[in-house]
Amino acid sequence: MRWVDTVTADQCPAGTIVEHVVDGTVLAIANISGVFRVTDGICPHQGGSIGKGTLHQYETCIVRCPWHGWEYDLETGQHQSIPSVALETYESRVVGGVVQVGFEQ
Ligand code: FES
To answer: What is the model's pTM?
Structure first.
């Protein structure tokens, strides 16, 4: 696993989601009650920014794409109504206040 620094934990407070680009890969980083979830940041529908989406008001592990409203589970990446569609998910950890994302070698 190759760990790469992204945003600081302070830049992504609980209940928020941000977009971040690492080595040309667009990621969405969400803070779900202190647990960071990282997925692909590009919606498979037509390329909307997942990191600029909105978290569900009650089930904050669900993000809604800002373009046409497709919804994904940020833990699994799974689209909420189309079984064949999912975002790639990445491991994350916080080291020294920085959210790191793990990429397979
Ligand atoms: S681009 Fe995400 S729902 Fe259309």
So the answer is: 0.96
Q: Across the strands, what pairs with 30?
A: 17, 37
Ligand 1 lined by 48 (C-beta under 6 Å): yes
Q: Which residue's alpha carbon is at the smallest distance from atom 4 of ligand 1? A: 68
- Cα separation, 13 vs 25, whole angstroms: 22
The 10 Å Cβ neighbour count of residue 93 is 12
Residue 54 Cα to ligand 1 midpoint, Å, equals: 12
Quote the ligand 1 centre to 30 CA distance (angstroms): 18
Domains contained in the chain, CATH given: 2-103 (2.102.10.10)
pLDDT in tens, 12-24: 999 999 999 998 9
Provide Rg for the chain, Cα atoms.
13
